[in-house]
Amino acid sequence: MHAGVIGLGAMGAPMARRLATGGLLGGVWNRSHDRARSLGLELGVPVADDPAALAAHCDTVILSVADDAAVTAVVTAMIPGLKAGTVIIDTSTIAPATTRRLSAMLTEIGVSLLDAPISGGIEAAATGMLVTMVGGDPEALARVRPVLDRLASHIVHMGPSGSGQAAKMVNQVMVAGINQAVCEGLAFARALGLPSDTLLPALGHGMAGSRLLEHRGATVCAGQFDRGFKVTLHQKDLLLARSLAEELGAQMPLIEMTLIQYRRLIEDGAGTQDISVLYRQKRKLFREEFPHDEDPGHRSGD
Q1: Which domains does the chain possess?
Q2: CB of 51 within 8 A of CB of 77?
Q3: C-alpha 268, offset from chain centre
Q4: Which residues are known catalytic residues?
Q5: Contact at 8 Å (CB) between 63 and 103?
Q6: Total Cβ atoms within 10 A of residue 92
Q7: pLDDT tens-place string over residues 123-142
């Protein structure tokens, strides 16, 4: 089995590395050719000239791109090189309706599209511990299990095309809530003068524990937000989730509050930073009540 990877960003590159070390990577392509060439040389795999060339060389193609427009553009560009029986695994987060439309188009030429958005962050991508929620043909999923098993520790078939994306919308709403709680709680802790080196382990072993706290707690307290899940990408996902909620005649306050705060972060130039940069806004809540400029647990500041 030869799997190609299109989109070599924060998630795509580590997934490509995982496939390469498992002997499954057949080639790569990226909109920025320099990035593709660099990774291709590192991993010793071909760099395709375009998506169609990669599709012609591989029986499975993994997409890890930014949004609906990017997925649509890449899938359309692949069509001249696609063969009947090819399976496209889209790990991006896009609207379920877009997935269903593309899936119907590809089915006409004998190609299967699985919507398989991923969760777990860059750490999980590097170690093969991602979670993927899959929509689409279960037989196609069975054929590409060796590829997904290399990338994810939990692979759950959610139902027909678009179901994986719908499940990811639920996931992203919950991530927003957890991010709100962690950032606000840690800002509160700083204002109270609590030392993070003892507080974080205590929180992690109690009901407040979460993967976000585990992987971002220390970096938040140190004021480090340069690596992780970009604010702009989570904003895009929450806009998709809001659209789905509106179709159901509902408004979700958590989404609305988070979108307002993300817009402020983007206006402040923090759109490409990790979503935990929300902590900076949360600290503003305590400036007057708790005028601590430093405390023993946050020597590095932010």
Answers
A1: 3-159 (3.40.50.720), 167-286 (1.10.1040.10)
A2: yes
A3: 23
A4: 168
A5: no
A6: 27
A7: 999 999 999 999 999 999 99
Beta carbons within 8 Å of 92's beta carbon, 6+ residues apart? 7, 63, 64, 65, 66, 67, 70, 71, 117
**Closest to 126 (Cα-Cα) out of 11, 244, 218, 232:** 11
Long-range contacts from 283-287, C-beta under 8 angstroms, 24+ separation: 283/187, 283/190, 283/191, 285/184, 285/187, 286/187, 286/188, 286/190, 286/191
In this predicted model, what pLDDT tens digit does every residue of 201-225 receive, in sequence order?
Answer: 999 999 999 999 999 999 999 999 9
CA separation for the pair 269, 247 (Å, rounded): 32
- Tell me the pTM: 0.90
Q: What is the mean pLDDT of the chain?
A: 94
134 with 114: CB under 8 angstroms?
A: yes
Distance CA 152, CA 89 (A): 13
In tens, the pLDDT along 221-242 reads 999 999 889 999 999 999 999 9
Name the band, by pLDDT with cuts 50, 70 and 90, for residue 300: very low
Instruction: Please report how many Cα atoms fall inside a 13 Å half-sphere around the Cα of residue 125, on the Cβ side.
Output: 19
Burial of 238 per CB tally in 10 Å (0-12, 13-18, 19+)? buried
